[in-house]
Amino acid sequence: MSSLYLSNDQLDLCEQLKQIGFPQEISPGVHLGRGFADLGYEQFVVLPAEKILSLFTGDIIEFNPDQSDYFFVIPDTEDLMQFLYVEDYDCELIDFEDGREWSVTFTTAYGMLSGRGQTLWDALIFCSVHALENQKEYAA
Q: Which of 54, 74, 94 is the last residue of a domain?
């Protein structure tokens, strides 16, 4: 992840991932997000014993697995790379161009997929969103 706190745009991409089929495995240590109408997002860390820690307020609250529909996983860089690997995307290039921007390129049976971002995480989440959108398009 680029930082402990992600922007609303970055969290929106994480929520999109859930909506289009990114695995949502919730276990201790996983970061979660939750959107609130017109207020933006809040981030949490899953704790043992069905509790979550708000990274905004510092409050520890009960987390009932029945509530998971209201939350989405915030994947880290490793999760995104693993997802793309499992989906048969071969990493052809990872480059930190001029010390300013990350560039990644993957190939698959569907063609080439590239992403750019200020962080490697930004480039990978872009690729992951487009990989899932491509899967839906080709499955239709």
A: 74
For residue 2, the model assigns a pLDDT of 42
Span 106-115, pLDDT tens digits: 999 878 999 9
- 82 and 65 share one domain: no
Beta carbons within 8 Å of 126's beta carbon, 6+ residues apart: 13, 115, 116, 117
Lookup: tokens for 38: 């017109």
What confidence tens digit (pLDDT) does each residue in 127-137 have? 999 999 987 77
Domain identity same for 70 and 82: no
pTM value is 0.90
**Structural domain boundaries enclosing 108:** 76-140
Give long-range contacts, CB 8 A cutoff, 24+ apart: 117-123: 118/2, 119/1, 119/2, 120/77, 120/94, 120/96, 121/1, 121/2, 121/76, 121/77, 121/80, 122/2, 122/10
Average pLDDT over residues 70-97: 95
